[in-house]
Structures are given as C-alpha cells and as structure tokens.
C-alpha cells in the first residue's frame, strides 16, 4: 500500500523561478527596479538549549504543517512502523532560493554578480560605455537587465568565468561575509530561514541525509552551504558552467568557462538527483514551479513521501508573492499541491521567526 503524506492543505498562490547560476537564464521579466519590502519586524524567539531539545522546531507555530513534518519523521524512522524507511534510503532534498533563504527582489547570486561588476570596473574602463555594465555602474539595474538573457550572460561571463574554482570559492566566501541586502541591510547569511534550518537539523538527527538541489550555481552555494545549513559541499547540486583543466604557475587548476554545462531547474532537478545521488528522495521541499518536477519525482516513489512548498505569504516580515511574481513564481505547483495533498507551508501562519537574530560581527 502506498502511504504517502497526502492530506489536503489550504491552497493560496505563487510563481516559478528560472536560475541564477551557470548561464543564469533569467527572463527579461527580471528587468525591474529593486522594490522595497515591508519593515521586516520579525521578532526572533530566543530558546534555551533545553527547550530546543524538548521542542525540535522552536521557530514553528503549533500548526498542521509542523505536526505533519514531525509525524512523517516519526513514522518513517520508528522500527516496526508500516512506513519505516531504512536509514540508507532516507534522502531529503531542498531547493535553496526561496526555500532555505530569501530570494527577493533578485536572486542573491545576481546581487553577487552585480557587486563583482562594480569591484572589477576599475580594470575595465570600457564598461563605462558598454551595456549592461554602464547601467549597473550607475545603479540602474532595470536598464541593465532589460537586455534579458543576453545581458545576464554578459554579466556572468565577466564576473564568474576565467577564475579558478579556488579563486571563485574564496571570492564568494569574502562577499557573503560582508555584503548586505539592499532592503533589509542584513548580511545574506542572516537571511536564511531558521525554521528550515531546524527541519534540516531534525532530519539529520533522525538519520536522514539532506541535499540542496537548486537552480543556483553549484559552486556559489558550496561556498556557504555548510556553515549556513550544515550541508557539506558534496551534497550540493546546482547549475554549472563548463570548466577546463590548466596548469598555472606549475600548479594544476580548474578554470571556469563562459559556457553553460548544466541547468538544474524544472526537469533538470530529478535528472540531477538521479545522476548525483542515485536514489529517489522521500522528502522534497521547494517553493516555486521550478521545483515541481522534483516534488513529482519524489512523490512517485513506491513508499511514503513528504512533498512541501514554502509559500511566501508574509508581507510584514518578508515578502508576499506567488502566482504573479517575477521571482519564485508558484502557480502550477500550488495547484498540484492542492490537488495531491502536498504540504503547503505558509510563512505568515506557520513560522514564529522568519530571519531570526542577525549574527554579531
């Protein structure tokens, strides 16, 4: 008998995402001004370690969503349960942008690329008169991205390609330690979602292996996935540029090329899961139509599964968007979740805390 976690959940709305990685194949719809957000008056809940042990999900409200997550973990890890899953089959996959950290008003990797343009500009005086760089240097993001995919590819080629993988890794680490989000003024690492980090921690304590499967650039995410989420780099799957092996100064290096290797979005996600993990997940969390195929692949397995969409419904503490959003559209996925009884996590209803307390610097 197939015992999937398919009880209906309240529908709402939302929208799909392309990718910000490799080719960064973002649509021309990203040619927008950077909108502001609400005041983000999130009141973090400070928990004593003993209370955290008693409550494995302290940043969650006591709602059906929290209960379904806890029940699924319990019944799949309790010996003798009809839904027991052997430890070597406990695979959980998570999208990153909009699922584990925020993604508005642009994907954070695009903010990284824009900042890199400004950093590299002194070495490229021709950029002052060449689009999309001229507009970026004037802080006119709307005009810069009006060129659509071609403009994005130019930005990526200028800021990602030509570097060795080690150079790129260090550059991302340095940026993410100091860069600030344009509206919240938080460091990007302080815009991860504590409720989702708690789910990751709880799953690992229950014998699950957790993976990121995201449209973001794989090496961009690997630079921070372990400190941010406790996920090691070998358990991060994402989009990628091609690379070339070279010898520089007598040392072997891998150099990033301005050519797309793989796009880890939509149907690319289950393909990447099979290629890199070799097991079908039993848990999948996403937040947009770009994650739909990953959830469908997970739900199609022979045993119990938990498929969930994080739905952005909190304009006060974060952003509210779904079916009509230019970033993270949740439209087809929302309908599929309602029809199939997948879990819909609504941020305003289900989370006590959205961003938590910024780390002291």
The CATH class, by name, is Alpha Beta
Choose one word for the global shape: globular
What is the terminal-to-terminal distance? 53 Å
Query: What's the count of strands?
Result: 7
Strand order of the largest sheet: 4-3-2-1-5-6-7
The major pleated sheet works out as: 7 strands, mixed
Q: Provide the residue-averaged pLDDT.
A: 87
Radius of gyration: 20 Å
- The number of helical elements comes to 14
Number of domains: 1
CATH superfamily: HAD superfamily/HAD-like
Itemize the secondary structure elements and their pairings:
Elements (H helix, E strand, L loop, with lengths): L48 H6 L9 H14 L13 E4 L13 H13 L12 H5 L3 H5 L2 H12 L5 H14 L15 H12 L3 E9 H5 L2 H5 L6 E13 L2 E12 L5 H9 L6 E4 L5 H8 L6 E6 L20 H9 L2 E4 H4 L11
Parallel strand pairs: 1-2, 1-5, 2-3, 5-6, 6-7
Antiparallel strand pairs: 3-4
